[in-house]
Amino acid sequence: MIEVHSDVLVEAFYGDGWDSSNRSTVRPISREEADRRDAAGEPYAVVLAALGQELPVGVLHVAWAEHYLGLWRFDALGRRVFEADLRRLEPGRLFLRHLAEWRYEQQDLPDLSDEAWRRTIDLYPDGKNSQGLYPRGRLGGSTHTLVDLPRDLWWLPVPEFGRWEHLLAAPQFGLQGTIRLVEETADIALRPTTGAAEPFGWRPPVPAAAAPWLGELFTPGFKFTHRHRSEPLIIEPVRTVTDIVLPTGQLAVCDPSYLPDGHEGDPLVIEVPPGVYPVQETGAGYEDEMFGDRFTARDTYAVRLLVSEKPTASWTMAIPPGEDVRLLRDGQYLGFDVDSATGCFVDSTARTELGRRYMRALTSGGGEDVHDTDDGYSKVTDDATGAELVTFMLGGDGVYPVWVGRDDTGEVTTVIVANSFEVGCLKPLTP
After folding, report:
1. What is the pLDDT of residue 3?
2. What is d(CA 50, CA 11) in angstroms, rounded to the nearest whole number?
């Protein structure tokens, strides 16, 4: 715990952020301008410093348009010792999405040192939670357990503008003692500076976005470098594996083993016009070596449902039912769970029956109504409705995002499921 003597007087200064390296407020602003930004949902920062002290006790990053409030606590040497990631999920209430704590056992350890003791906590409103403990910092081992933080501490009231002391003194954030915010008497700031590496010196968490070159995965001849390959990879001609009939246009994307009764849940569903669409794959070959023998191998990078030949103008992440994008942290994504290294496209209205038939054929060694190919694809057709299920192999188990391409009118052009590991190793080869 960080001890604070009772009735510590704290001043609030406003700006675009706090520069820890220069120990100064980034582009200071007046209280009135910060109040305007708060009401408009625009980002700003609050620097909270004890009277007569050069370094802050804490810094708040506020961006209500993104439902975000971040909090940093500092020690007497200006090192960060506590981080809280809060999300305004309900009117008047903040959810404690993430906590991180650092302890510097050596005085000479720098801010956020990899050697510092560290604890992380991740929380979700549905009760899922985890805690990571790193006694030797990032460089040592770790243990992961469930969180012992009481559920009534997972939520905090949204602070009124200018009433920051109540948030700073919340027991979740490691403080002991009383903090009192004094009335600001002037629009001054701690050693103001005029520049910052980023426009605001910080930004709200940004979830994973579709790679801007996602379409190039299906562009024959396009060249990529690969983290684990010495030679550039060249995208081969797109291969149409089969087609799929979607009588209702309700495209479900999921692990086919989840479809039968008792495992169905709510798959990720995307609406497209009813019709028949090609299922295509993309990949590249390369030369490899094992035990002195050279051979040609090929990786499949992605599978797509091609809905339209119109150019794709934008990409969005498909959101599974019941999920909340406001909970995503930097680089995180939502998708469908996979436990069989297999995904599928299926007409949602027939998914249970088609899934049952697919799993029955899989466990019994085949079936007349399941058509397999030599390259990991299977197809099942419902005779009554014509609806179909097409399965495809993925890179392994885990969570796979689904990217939806749309044209400039907002109509769906394509739905892509990528081999997350392999695509993460790719980078366009710049001319």
Report:
1. 41
2. 6
pLDDT digits (tens, 9 = 90+) for 263-291: 656 789 999 999 999 999 999 998 877 78
The per-type count for the chain, helices as H runs and strands as E runs, is 4, 31
- DSSP secondary structure letter of residue 79: -
CB 378 within 8 A of CB 367: no
> What is the C-alpha separation between 46 and 25, in angstroms, rounded?
9
**Which residues, including other chains, have CB under 8 Å from residue 410's CB and lie 6 or more apart?**
none
pLDDT at 7: 65
pLDDT recorded at residue 165 = 82
- Give whole-number Cα distances, 349 to 257, 266, 334, 427, in Å: 16, 12, 23, 38
Q: What is the pLDDT of residue 374?
A: 59
138 backbone dihedrals φ, ψ, rounded to 5°: -65, -20
Q: Is 35 helix (H, G, I), strand (E, B) or coil?
A: helix
Alpha helix (H) residue ranges in 133-188: 165-168
Coil, helix or strand at residue 7:
coil
Which residues, listed in sequence order, are joined to residue 173 by a DSSP beta bridge? none
Instruction: Answer yes or no: are the C-beta atoms of 241 and 372 closer than 8 Å.
Output: no
Quote the tokens at residue 211. Answer: 């790679």
- State residue 362's pLDDT score: 80
Question: Taking Cα atoms as reference points, which of 69, 18, 62, 25 lies closest to residue 40?
Answer: 62
Domain boundaries, given as residue ranges, for the chain: 2-181, 214-428
- Nearest Cα neighbor of 192 from 341, 26, 399 is 26
> What global pTM score does this model have?
0.85
Distances from the Cα of 375 to the Cα of 42, 208, 378, angstroms? 51, 30, 9
Q: Which residues of the chain have pLDDT under 50?
A: 1-5, 185-199
Q: Cβ distance 269 to 252 under 8 Å?
A: yes
**350 and 381 in contact (C-beta within 8 Å)?**
no
